[in-house]
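Incident log, structure service

09:12 report received: a user says their structure output differs between two submissions of the same chain.
09:20 pulled the input from the user's history:
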Amino acid sequence: MKKILIIVIIILLIVIGGLFVFNIQTSNLAQYTKPESSTTTNYVNNDIVIDKTDNNIINETEIENAIITEETYNKEKYNGEFELPISGSTGFASVSLPLYKNQGSSVLKNINPGQAFKIIDESDNYFKIELSDSTTGYIESKYCLVNLPDIIPSIIYDDTNSYKSIFKSSGYDLENITGKKLYNVFMHNDRLEQDEYIMPLLYPMTKKIAQVQEKALENGDCLKIYETFRPYEVQMKVSDSLSALMESNETVKKGITTSPWDKSWFIAVQLSNHQRGVALDVSLAKVEDKEYKKCGDYTYMNVTKYDEYTMPTQMHELSRSAATFTSPVDSKSKTAWKNVKLASSMNESAKKLQNYFTSYGLTPLASEWWHFNDLDTRELTKDKGSNGKFYLNDCLSTIPD
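09:34 re-ran on a clean worker, output below:
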């Protein structure tokens, strides 16, 4: 009888101990499991995927399906002039422009140079736009600067003048310019769901840039844009700093004034095509890795890793070392450059970059391997050319409708 009693007691102790351990484990589990309301979710292809960092049971197949494949990209990419629709992108008035109630009808108000707006739609030669105060109307599209990252997101954007200018001359720093932040165009872009540079060009030119990038991507290359619009005030500050440097440094002076060159070829001493919205400073990179991302109903490509090609000089080296040709070329001519000999420093990478741009009607600048102009757009907008006396301060981009 005593033996049976001892066995029963032992069994009871084992059961009680097991319940105690179970309660502790349950308590600990409750302590470290996030409540339902704090679950982190990512929205991919309109499907909810629970983040793995949460202590929730997740089907691994759902995670794998969340990765956008190239096949999905080919089905969901935008089939238009750009990689994403113009709808929802940010635009800016390059000059004072009338905002019409309807196309060419009564004027609601005038839009100031540099004023931002959201593009709602395009019709004929007009944009339907919305201002930051919710006013809507129509504006002539050819005079509008359009933000490139909104419509060609696959390009690599790196506006060094917006955080740490790399302007130099014969390797020497420009006082109060080199290493300085000359303006700020790096801000959050709701459309792309990330911080990005504002880099606009006049609308007709953006169509050519889209063609250049498409061709580059076909060959495994990618454009890397360092600057598009440059405020006039910044232009003059760089020009003044270079003038001061050349007066105090003989090496710099020789680098920009040795015949047949002069200072004006390396930094405009007055209004330049950067202020007009028809020029960009650009390099070329080899795509090493990429990903596909969603923007509304569309999928686009985003370069995540690249190798920038070696060029004749670093970007924004203001001296004859960076020259494209052996001598100056009429910068207002679309064809004169074809009859001038390339500089010996123009390596294969620089020639490749030039070929991409000239194949789509853009013109190289004789003194800078990185600079290309759109003379067609300049001619198209010459009746209302921008003076660039404004800064860009807003990004109103949204997901395309």
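09:41 both user submissions now match this output. Likely a transient worker issue. Closing.
09:42 reviewer note: The chain has a mean pLDDT of 88. The two ends are 84 Å apart (CA to CA).
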